[in-house]
Structure formats: structure tokens, C-alpha cells
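Protocol step 4 of 6: record predicted structures for both targets in the notebook before any analysis. Target 1:
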Amino acid sequence: MSLCVMREFQGEFEPVGSFDAVDTGDIIFSYSERYLSQKSAAPLSASLPLRREPFHSNEYGGFFSGMIPEGPVRAELSTRFQIPQSDYLSMLARLGEECVGALMFRSDDAVESRAGFRPLTQADADELHKSEIVEIANAMQISRLSLAGAQSKTGWYLPRSADAKTAGPGQWMLPIGSAPSTHIIKVASGKHPDLPTNEQVCMDVAQASGLCVAGSFASEALNNVFISERYDRVWADGCSIVEGNRTPMRLHQEDFCQALGWPSFMKYENQQNTNYMAMCGRLLREQSSNAIADVQIFGRQVAIDYLLGNCDSHLKNHSLLLGPNWRSKRLSPAYDIVCTTILGYDHNLGIDIGDHRVIDEVDAKDFEFVAEDLSLPLRRYRAICCEVAECTKQKLGELSEASGDLGRVATQIFGDAAPRIKVLEQFAS
């Protein structure tokens, strides 16, 4: 079996390369000669530079395996497809018509599926809450959609004219085949029913503290669901029409794990002599089209994640986003910011801050190391952190006065963040 890799470029899909079995039993990935000869050719990842020599699995595995779900959803898909969880290429052959970024995967023996949309009903929304793992796997199988990450989530489509905050099940649609989704839908688990509100508070605070964030909110019309706009989908002139619905253009992206060529299990900083903070800074300086600005933005997010108790800020929760021409590359809008310290998980950070892995042990001196690791002028980083601390306090204070779940969860996060705000203020003073 040969698996073709395609990219969306200026509204059209074109072949980029393919996976092919060789006599040694290995499966190689190669860019096609036709693609390499084009002036518009660009690497799929920083870890997969343009070249005629084929890539072996130890070279391409980090990028391509990082495009499929992790955790229980992956296990459920593995069972129903009767393929090993480690066989990410077979997963992509089954699910890879709608992925994170601008790629599509199609096997040579596959029957091309029809692009379309299926209207969602209230029953669909209700089932999502009853058994989110099974229902999300069902949605992925029907829509041939693969979203990376460990959290239960799927992709839905909403016409541009509709208001996502008030849209009910009758307006949302499930994309089929190569039809693109416009929003990512996350379902609260029974263990953490406040998770959508938690994420809404954190994203609102992050935006108020100077971060560009993915547009997101806890839905008013869908019970206990968190909705995030896909920043890798943009409405543009000349968008294609599918079943009478305008569709957005796909933008390509890669998370930091993929850019480094690392598999997903390396997303958390390990116990060895690695410095993920310095690696993130170096990656941005090497890859970003505006490295000075993006390194400062990343440093700002480090401070915000710390204040909000987001211990799940790992390498797959930071991404590089390519422009429509596949030439420019910038740090993507921030996403997946959650106060994990109030959820009962351990307090180990995804990326160490200075000399400490446990968030409660971080002190003001550690932020001097962050500035050093990111090659940021200390004075400039102090100013950034001073702004972050003030904005965080102000926004959490405002949200704490809101009624209902929003005010209750914001108050809880504010109380949890209080000692960390003092640490950051000490550094910034």
C-alpha cells in the first residue's frame, strides 16, 4: 500500500509525497520530484526539510505520529479498526482527510469519500455527553477526521454567518470526508464538570494579559461544552463551496514536538539533562519569521501559564503556524490553557521553570533563568512579567464577580493563583 500526502495550497489540494514500502521491509517517506520542482514547495515540518533522499521512520515518525489522537480515543479507534495503536500510518489512512493543519492523507486503494456535511441534532449533542470517548471516535470515523492530543475533542462546522456562542445543534454540522471543520469541540468529563468554565476563565485571562488566543468559550447553547475556533482555518476570497456551504481555507501548522521531530511521549520535560525552555527559544529563533517578537510572546505565555497553574503546558501545546503562502511562519495563537492545579493532578510542570519542575517550588530567581534560556533581556522580561501580573489580577478580579459557574470557578482560580502572583511580582520589582 502507498499512502499519498497532500497539502492544501491556495484553496486546492496537491500531492506532496508518499509513504512506500521498500524491499528491506521499512516504509519510507519521500517528497515527489514534481513537488520539489515547484517554486511554491515548502517543508511539511522543520524536522522534514526538502530533499530528494527519502526519510526513514526514525526521521518522520515524530511529525506524522503527532497528527493522531492520544489516550483513550486512540485506544478506542485502535480497537474498532483492529490495528495497533502504534500503527499511526494506518490510522492516518483511515482518518486523515481532515487533520490539524493543511494536510490530507489518502491511500492508493481507498475510495475517495464525498465531501459534505451532516446536520447535528440535539440527540447527537446529548450522546456526546453520555459517552464522550465512543461518540468522539464515532465522529472521527464518520468524518475521517484526526485531531492530535489527549483530551476528548472533535471538529464541527458552522457557517460563517452563524454566531458560535448561541448556535444550537441544528446549526452545527459534522464535516464528512475532506470537508473542513471550523471549530474544535471539547466535552467535559464526569470527573471534571467545570473544565469548560475553567478553560474559558483561563483563556479570557490570557487574552487580557496580552496573549493572542484562539477564540473560545463555554457554549451557551450546548450544555457543558467548550468551543474553540480553529485558528488553522481562515475565511478567504475564493473559498470552495461544499453542498452550498462556504468552507474555510486550511493553514498549515506543526507543534513544537513535531518541529523537533520528537514523538508525543516526549512532550513533557524528562529527568535527563535537557532544557526544554532553551530549546523552545532556539526553535523560535531558527524558525519564526519574526523571532524577536515570538520569543517575547512565548516568554509572556510562560508567565501566564505559571500564574494560572497550567502545569499541562508541554511541547504539543505550542505550535508554529504557516501563512497561506507557506513561506512565513509564526508562533500560533495560544490554546489549551487550563488551571490544572485545582483539578487534583500533580503539580509537575510540563516545561521546567528555571531549576524547578514542581510549580509550588518556583521562585523569583527561576524567572531570571527563563530570561536567560530564552535570550531575553532581563529588564524587558521583568517589564513583561509586571504587566502579566497586573492584568491577571485585574481580569481574575472582574471574572470573580460574575454570576454562576463563571464567577465561582474564577474565584477558585484567583485564590489558587495568589501565591504565584506574589512570586512573579517579586521577580518583576
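Target 2:
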Amino acid sequence: MLEFAPIAFGESFALRFSQPLPTSVSAPFLDLFKTPMTLVHVLVVLLLLLCAAVVLFIRQRNIQEWLFSYLKQDWRAPVPPGTTKHVMFCFVDHYEPMWKQPDYATECRRVARWRQEYPALCDQFRDADGRGPIHSFFYPEEEYRPEHLDALVEICRMGYGEIEIHLHHDKDTEAGLREKLRRFTRTLVDRHDALPVDPVTKQPRWAFIHGNWALDNSHPHGYGCGVNNELIVLREEGCYVDYTFPASPDPCQTSTINKIYYAKDDPERCKSHDTGMRVKAGGKPWGDLMLIQGPLGFKWSDRKFGIIPRIENSDIRTSCPPTPDRVDAWIETGIHVEGKPEWIFVKIHTHGTQERDMDTLLGEPMRRCYEHLHAKYNDGREWKLHHVSAREMYNIVKAAEQGLPGEPGQYRDLVIPRPAYRPMPAGN
């Protein structure tokens, strides 16, 4: 007798029989019903598994925070034909000699390697202004040692770098944050001559990267900050720009991506910088703090299992070296001041004192990166390349905002001057 039975998910669609059919009948009869419907079910299962893998990938890497912004692609703008495009290339470093709390000798070796090897790398290249690569060392307040800063100051004095502020803190208060910033920035001025000083207010001026990405108490679990009005505090203590982002796949990543924008602090809530107002040519400052973001998107040429693209977050490590295709992707992102698309701002980042990555940052992979940059984006006609520090990039952004004419290289010191990095008297 023929009967119909419920079919569990994943089973082939087939008729079930209360007793066997004759062999001459049963085999072709079952094949008639079984074969086409098995294929359909396999395809459905595979599709469901693929969808589940995509959802898991998105959730595990917190892509839902910025996926909608990526799909909009609203940071892009065409460049008029025949217009020379200028690339401002900035390399910022979460520079942490005490990473993983090593012994003192290891700290010193990390710093010494940069002092010894970085100048030789830079000397091989010259941009459209005759300048070589320049490294922005964002040094952590909580890792301060005068001897480490002295070594970096030597690099800066030779024109290969500049020093800015990095800070890791947790469960902090407004008063505690202000005390840390004031103490450290005054030390960098008085002991190392490593920050510019406002001639009117006598206040140190500086760029900022937040430790653990948690700017303005933005971690969803409250980790790594504690101060909801941090943007206001930073501005009032002398900060003029933030370079923390992108942070993906970290959950502190903003929904705003690939933009240069102003954020206005709401002291009653965290992550006030999640959205803001774009910096515009002919516009005016707004809010509390400017944020300059690096490129964020997907590596469509690099897919996990050949299907799911990996995240492009402009991070440079041995595991994700600065290959020519990545360089092209950064520039194609086209981060710019609204209304000035021919000035393209590329900010990449690293953690430069980690041994596993220093061969990449100071060796052949980075040299090939610069070779590609100079060969493809510095022909003097279609493209001009400008190596800039974090401070210089900010100044050029301000020049674009003010609608100033000419080439961007002439505005490196427009608003914030370069510190002198003078040798300081003994005992300071």
C-alpha cells in the first residue's frame, strides 16, 4: 500500500510504502520522484548554509555597524576630466613600546630598530614636493619613558616623523582624563619640544588616537574609556583632530565611514562621533572635533572560501601587507573634503613596535608599497603624490575647507605649525 509520510528538513522528497513493491516497479518508480526533488533540496540547503555563513561573518566582525553606509557609497564624487589628482598619503602608528609588557631591554630594541632602519627606507623616495615618507608616532601617555621619546625626537628632527598623542584608559572620569592629557602634553612640550604651542593660549596642540578604539566611551560594554563628554574634553585640552578610525572589526567602529567630518559631543550619551557633518569646501568648522578616517570596505579580490570578501580596514601588518592592489583600493575609495574630490586623503595605520610586523613595516613589503605609489601616482600630470604627517594632513584639509587655491603641498603648516624638536637643556 502506498502512504504519504511527513518529511524532516534535509530529507529527500520521496514516497514511502507500507510494503515493498515488486523490484521491476519499485526502482524506476522511486527514481522518478526522488531524483529531481533531491537536487532541489540540496540547492536549498546549500543556499541556507551560505546565508548563515554570511550572517555569521557580518555579526562576528560587527559589519552591521557600517554595512548600510558602505552600500550607499555616498562618500564618492567624480573628478572633472583633465584635473590633476593629488594624493595625501599619511601613515599613523599606534606606537606602543610596552606592548604585552616586555622587559626593558625589549622595549629599547623596538625603539632602536625604528631609529636605525626607518631613515634608510625613507631616503629612497621623493614625492611631488621633494619630500620622503613621514611617520606619525602616536605615543601612549601610559607608556611614557623619556629615553624612548628622545629616540623618536631624533627621527623627527631629521624630518622622518612627528609625534602625537595616544591614550589607553578605562573607567576614567572627566577630571582624570584632563589630568592625564595636561601632564603628558606639557611633558612633550617642556621635555622634548615635540608638540606645537598656541601662541595666544600657550596650550599644546595635538592630534589624537584613542586606545582600544573606544573614543567617547563607544565600546558597547563600556570598556576602554568611561568619559561620555570626551570630545569636548579633547577639544578644550588642545586636540584639533582625531585619527582613531577605521576600527573594524572592533565594535567601536562608527556607522560613518570613509569621510572627513566634524562631530558634536552630547555629554549625556556615548559615541557622539558616530555621525556628524562633513567638512566642505567653502564651509565652516562645526561641533567639537574633526575626524579624518582611513579607507574601510571589502577586499573583493581576497575572499574566504572563495566566496566571502575580507575586510579592508587600512591596517598594515605582516598578515595584511601593503600590496599594490591594496594601495589602489585605498586611493579608489576617494576620501576627500566635500566639493574637492581631486584632493584624495589616504590614512593607513599600524602598531609599529610588534616584532612580528617590523620586517614588513621597515623592510621589503613597505618599500614595494612606496615604489608602487611613486610609479603610479606621481607622474606630475594625472597624479601628484604628497607624503604628509597627521598634522600636515589636517592643515591641508583646512586649506580645502577654506577654498584656498594652488597645490596642497604649500599648506602643510597652514593652521598648526610644526614643532621644532630642538635639543632641550639637560635636566628638563
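Step 5 preliminary note on target 2. The chain has two domains: 2-58, 79-411. The radius of gyration is 27 Å.
Proceed to step 6 after PI sign-off.
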